[in-house]
């Protein structure tokens, strides 16, 4: 049995230091897919730091010119007021068909798992996550045991924004940021009747709560926008064509969120907590600049 993780990458190199350190304790191989264009079809450099490569880490380049779609006027946008579970398929496929940035994001996430599908054995364990979602190695035995029992599981996450100890208090969709990360057997992975992006997006809104088991206790951290002074600007531009409210797509808005301890676009307050069971990797690395005092 081997444990694989597949995830897309944009520019999260500080998160990479933490993720790779934590993964090394129990994950056999991390496959990272990075595109040479943003979701908004703007050229971008390959940001993944080569120092992260090694026997347990592979970096795959997606040449996006022939597969990503370019921006067009009059696109529909994701709207939390209308995009709900009860009409999930309608709004999801509408966005996939008519919002090119949403399509490009889905294409990259789905391509991650297509790359090595034939190499995965039935008894292997597969993790599908975004790059800034990091599972806690101290819970590895528990997660593996539950996957073997259920074939596929999800986990709850602690969600931080901008700093390691800057926690979001509430979230849209499934509670405790669950049903974003999925862990499954190779057998389930190869027979999954939907794409990785569909699984994540429908899971986000609680569509699988009744038929996919979720661990009771949080099993990792989503360290969003970490090292924001370097990553926020490029990330905002990457998503520019996928957001209707362009007023939040600037670094001034990011600083406002930090100062006011409020993420308006997620309708959540932020609080500082230094007592959470932070990942071992965080304690072992130089992260002094990533904590909010």
What does the model show?
By secondary structure, this protein is α/β, with parallel strands linked by helices. The protein has a single domain (about 5-155, about 170-225), classed as Spore Coat Polysaccharide Biosynthesis Protein SpsA, Chain A. Helix 2 packs across helix 3 (about 100-115). The longest helix has 15 residues, at about 100-115. It is built from 9 helices and 13 strands. The strands form 3 sheets. The protein has a 7-stranded mixed β-sheet, with helices on both faces. The protein is globular.
What characteristics describe this protein?
30% helix, alpha/beta, Spore Coat Polysaccharide Biosynthesis Protein SpsA, Chain A, 293 residues, 19% strand
Write a brief structural summary.
With 293 residues, the protein is of the alpha/beta class. The protein contains nine helices and 13 strands.
């Amino acid at each position: 049995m081997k444990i694989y993780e597949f995830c897309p990458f944009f520019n999260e190199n500080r998160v990479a230091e933490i993720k790779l350190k934590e993964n090394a304790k129990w994950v056999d191989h991390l496959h990272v897919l990075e595109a040479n264009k943003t979701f908004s079809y703007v050229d971008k450099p390959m940001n993944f730091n080569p120092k992260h490569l090694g026997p347990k880490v592979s970096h795959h380049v997606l040449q996006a010119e022939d597969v990503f779609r370019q921006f067009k006027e009059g696109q529909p946008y994701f709207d939390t007021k209308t995009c709900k579970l009860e009409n999930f398929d309608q709004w999801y496929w509408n966005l996939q068909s008519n919002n090119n940035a949403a399509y490009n994001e889905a294409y990259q996430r789905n391509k991650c798992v297509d790359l090595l599908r034939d190499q995965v054995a039935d008894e292997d364990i597969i993790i599908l996550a975004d790059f800034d979602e990091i599972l806690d190695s101290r819970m590895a035995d528990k997660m593996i045991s539950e996957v073997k029992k259920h074939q596929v599981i999800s986990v709850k996450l602690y969600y931080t924004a901008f700093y390691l100890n800057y926690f979001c208090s509430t979230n849209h969709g499934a509670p405790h940021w669950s049903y974003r990360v999925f862990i499954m057997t190779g057998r389930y992975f190869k027979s999954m009747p939907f794409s990785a992006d569909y699984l994540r997006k429908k899971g986000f809104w609680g569509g699988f709560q009744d038929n996919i088991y979720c661990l009771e206790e949080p099993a990792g951290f989503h360290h969003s926008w970490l090292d924001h002074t370097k990553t926020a600007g490029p990330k905002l531009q990457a998503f520019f064509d996928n957001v209707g409210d362009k007023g939040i797509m600037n670094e001034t808005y990011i600083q406002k969120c930090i100062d006011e301890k409020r993420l308006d676009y997620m309708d959540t307050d932020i609080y500082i907590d230094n007592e959470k069971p932070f990942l071992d990797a965080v304690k072992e690395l130089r992260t002094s600049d990533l904590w909010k005092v």
